[in-house]
Amino acid sequence: MNFSEDRDLLAYEPEVFSEVPFAAQERVSIADGVVTGSVLSSVSADFVAAGVSAGCVVLLDRVAHEVVEVLDGQSLRVSRLRVRASDALVSAAEGEGVAVRVRTFAAQASLVHDLLLRLLGLEGEDGLGEGSVVSLGAVCRLECLGALELIYSAAASVGGANESVLAKSALYRGRFRRACRETTVGVDVDGDGLADERRGLGLVSLVRA
Fold it and tell me: Which domain of life is it from (predicted)?
């Protein structure tokens, strides 16, 4: 399981879900959304079958919102992005016939997740595994920055990429490398839930295959 969710990516880069859609995996695309308060509903949707869950991001007429709760197959509780997931909901604009898209960058985050485990010496049968990581906020940040580097690097490699995409590709490459140099991660070695070691990652380069 990834250390981050799509809502975490949204906090770092508000435009990513609409700016580079071809790099995302699209789970839902419908045009009959109805928004009332914090509830989004659709008679044509099956959010459960599509794999939508709390922490996902949904675009309502191109405006990004976080999914707070899956109420049933045809309705979600949503909110504008909050500072913390525990904060009060921020209602979406109400309307009918709303274009609804659920996109995810979980695949990119998963690649970075596996890289972080490898760099921390936690992967494989002899490794302690992801459950030994104590510094969850730190690794969530690293995973987000690494995923954003992958996303925008892929977008920048496509012919005709605009200046914003090119600039963000360079920005997140630098931010991820700097974060890897500066961050140490607490690791629980003996299973008591407390950090016994602090491990660094060093300089990292992500290379697209």
Answer: Bacteria
